[in-house]
Queue: 4 jobs
Job 1
Amino acid sequence: MKHWLSAFRLRTLPLAVSSILVGSALAHVADGATYVGPPAFRPTILILALLTAILLQILSNLANDLGDHQHGTDNEARVGPQRAVQSGAISTAAMKRAMLICGALAFITGCALITMALGLTMQTLAFLLLGLAAIGAAVKYTFGKNPYGYAGLGDLSVFLFFGIVGVCGTFYLHTRGFHPAVLLPAVAFGLLSTGVLNVNNMRDIHNDEASGKRTLVVRMGSANARVYHTFLVVGGVVCLLMFTLLGTRSPLQWIYLPALFLPLLHLVKVWRTAEPRDLDPQLKVLALGTFFTAILFSFGLFFW
């Protein structure tokens, strides 16, 4: 069981649920005239969305474990914890079965989510296609032939699914509506989540390059990757501040400010770290910083 828990990479799950919490909190304040009219926040939608997001993240982690092993990226030169398939703790066949089960569960919970939220409408069909795309994106990041993560498209996928789709999609499922203001927090958490992937890729630059994994970091080099990383972190912080400045209704909305010190402190550490493998601890710092920010940002909206 411990090998499966390791393969699930439970430490990645808080980041996966951040956009769901934020989208739900934005829907909560939509109950009045802030964005759109009711029906707004519904607890059942939150629970099903969280469950679906967690299953998709686990599916992505399992596929990544198997995919990087098949492509030779998980090897003795890799930085970070040893992967389950690479170590032989879990067989390739067992990992494929786990992926099928996890993918099926994500599909079932996703169907329940969109049906309960939207009923049987054309919007339901659109979200069903979006859900299938999310499952495909979770699997094809590093698994199979021509995985998009090896072509440098992982950043775009994370930005879309952890930011725009995660926040705006959750908001729409609650409210059956949309407001442009929701894009600011959606972009913010999309950028911060992409930053987590970017620092992972900065850490792995040498091994990825040697293994033919052409991430954005490999393509742009370490120096430019730090500039790009600064844009991701600072851009995320600025978008959150802009949203709160433009729509403050209670001082409680600023409760997330202390959490922003973690991403900003992380950014200083990234610039001061010369050896890529020494960036490994910064993965946790930025991931937890993003999660704590999401929790406090959402708290400020739920209880303003």
Job 2
Amino acid sequence: MAVSKQMQGLARGSGEAQVRAHMHPRPWAALPSGLSVLIRAENVRLVPEIVQEIRRQIPEYARPLDGRFGVGIQQGAARAVAQFAELVADDHASPEESLRVYRALGRGEWREGRSLDALQAAYRLGARLAWRRYAPLARRAGVPAAAMTALAEAIFAHIDEMAAASVEGYAEARADAAGALRRARRRLVQLLVGGAAEPVLAECGRMARFPLPERIAAVALRPDGLAGAAAGLRTMPTVLADLEGHQPCLFLADPETPGRIEQLAEVLADRTAVLGPTIPVVQAAQSLRWARTVATRLPAGAAPGLVHCDRQLSSVLLLGDEDLVALLGVRRLAPLEGLTEKRRDRLEETLLAWLETASGSAPEVAARLGLHPQTVRQRMRGIEELFGDVLADPDARFEIELALRGRRLHGR
């Protein structure tokens, strides 16, 4: 008797449903609100069927219903059909609570490392099962043919809303993970720059998904024009970069691996950068300090490319303490200070070439400078008169060469 009365009510409600359909373009607006009572009763049997078939037909979900997975799949199925009944009963029902569930399901798929394909397949399967149960139910209840079409449309429109919410949750989780990863990587850069201990670096490296290498090299970058390089650097999993600070830099893991430095040089081909020496990872800060020391001495119009500190470590040493190099010059090059600038420059050039050649012979020095040997002999006689026996002292010669190289590096 109760069911018969419900059917009579549904038949009487068909005219009301047509009005609702006119007022509300969403497909469930075309359904008689009384159908929701029958749908709720049917959901008791539908939810276990949906869960069972999802686990049977979709390999990704073919596992025991325990933990977060079991709660999620059962809650998702129950909430989906319950909300559909609410929409049929009241077109103004708010779906926000249910949408939170579907967003959570999307986030869960990201945490599990899956794409959304399995979840979307589960939604489609649930929609087909719901239609198979709701359609005979509606026909027995005397729902008009036009409303039967609306029932199918309503089911799949509801599934579309669920899927959209899951896509949103998936995207949010991915963005959150990307943000957390960026923060962890910036933190790892800060720890490397700060000279943190190896256990601290290893733990942060795990969080940053950057396995700690045995050896590393820093690269000092200029802050301008890095936007174009960022995309290329993201394709190199062996690079850890901080491009946002006022002193941008990056670290290259295991630079001695064949082809690795060449790949980095290609990415940075249009920019001026300085590659620090390759050293143990716990000394990464030293590599960066040396790279920045060289970078600060590069002229503003320096040609783009990757400058290698490893190829000029003596220059890095001299650039490290400009005041000390200047003091060395004052003490060891004092005999040249009374000369005219032109003569002093010529003698400094000749003296450095003499110190740098293997034999120190006039022909060898002349070939190095592009001069006639007799010109070199004349200059060397002047140098010997100025310096005297000092040039016979190996320590003095070493310090004189350092002073001359330092003056050249520092722009004298």
Job 3
Amino acid sequence: MRRHCTRFLILRVLAVMTLAAPMARPAAAEDFRVETQIYVGDKEEPASTNVTRFKGSVVWDFAGDGSEIVMFDKARGRFAMLDLQRKMRTEVTTGEVMQFTQQLRDWANGQDDPLLKFCATPRFEPTGGSTSKTLKFKSPLLSYEIETERPDKPEIAARYREFSDWYARVNTLFRPGLLPPFPRLLVNEQLAREQMVPQRVQLTLAPQPSHGNKQVTVRSEQSFVYGLLESDLEKIDKAAGYLVTLRNVSLAAYRGDETAAAPAKQAK
């Protein structure tokens, strides 16, 4: 039961928070991967991990437990979610994602919950940037503290920001219960302005009835590895095969509900 509650908490905040083998065949220099660990509270062991691989205009996000893969194809304007345990996949277009997130914003704006209303139209007091590697975004309900690095190539920060934006949006569609993604989008905008990427992100939620009237802290730690290994390319090739072999289902069937387009259902 405790593990289930921890997983729900991680899922709820994810939208507002993303040992190498010897190199045998390097990919293009602009390709890279990001290894992420997510921790809840003061736990020393990560509650979840994932590896995100950027290859050309396509991004592949692999859950650490091997259960799911998310594919973002910018050129074709689509997302695919692959569930390897249930042997199924589903797809949505970027247009559908944008339409849903706008509906979600409208819905959250009309709620009485202060946290939902804040997430619909967030306002922060940002500090840091330019000469500082630590950025802070403060508000009475939700705050971020972000330790950053500046990649050698500005396009790395731009590509990461683009995927992070889209991933924050699509998560609210794929995963019921997530908070609206708009606070994270504001954070990503500032990171892109500074041409930085996150090394460590700490999200603090003030005590709210929705999480037991207790302060909640979730942090993610990211490690950027520039260039892809042979093993990375093999994983991508295998994942691409799943797009053909796994049966395609509707979003509602993938999520196990009949209301895939209802924002109110999503954010409860």
Job 4
Amino acid sequence: MDLATVIGLALAFTGIIGGNILEGGKPGALLNVPGAMIVILGTIGAMMVSQPLSTVIGLPKFILKAIMGGKGHDSAATVDLFVGMADKARREGLLALEADVDKIHDDFTRKGVQLMIDGTDPELLREIMEIESDSMKHRHEGNFAALEFMGGISPTIGVLGAVMGLMGVMAHLDQPEEIGPGIATAFVATFYGVFTANVLYLPLAAKLKNNSKHELHALNVVIEGLMCIQAGDNPRIVREKLEGFLTPRERQKKDEAGAEAKREAA
């Protein structure tokens, strides 16, 4: 579970609904089935028109990933992995890494290490791994585009709901009992459109875009590690190069973990 996403959504709902209550509003007044249908189904329908079916089918899983959190990439652990492989490759040769391939759980890393052991030319290996990385980026960008489109169109659909509600009101001016529900649908539809766009769709798109950048950064650590080993770099040089990808916080945690391991060994 991604706590930042869950807590952020909870705060947004609490702030908006709580503020409405403090202003004297009633939460029940925000519940309007016709308005919800117009905005939510209308937004989803418009998004389906704008996006390929494969993106539409994969979007729920993509959104769930933002809420639940992905498995993530431990770049510090990746640095240690490649430093260890660099040391072993220098002492025993690249073929000695064959026994370690099945212990690598990340598919991207395992593929790169296997290609390296198979003697793939360095430039070709980099090209293959960058194509894999670019393919992932392209898939993610399709999902970002869908969520950002929904964030852009939802308020407009809300305005459409407001217009439809007011049209209903104007058609029943001779029936006062119909005026209240019609106006409620009009204003609540507008609320739904603005709310879903700015609390759900656009923030989720931004969250997933940021997560994708971190994932691509982690893949770059792997690619650089493969190049270092193929070049026969000294393990110390490999560590210095790859630790340049880490944030100051990641380096500090890594140093603290190393110091703790030394104390336990002593």
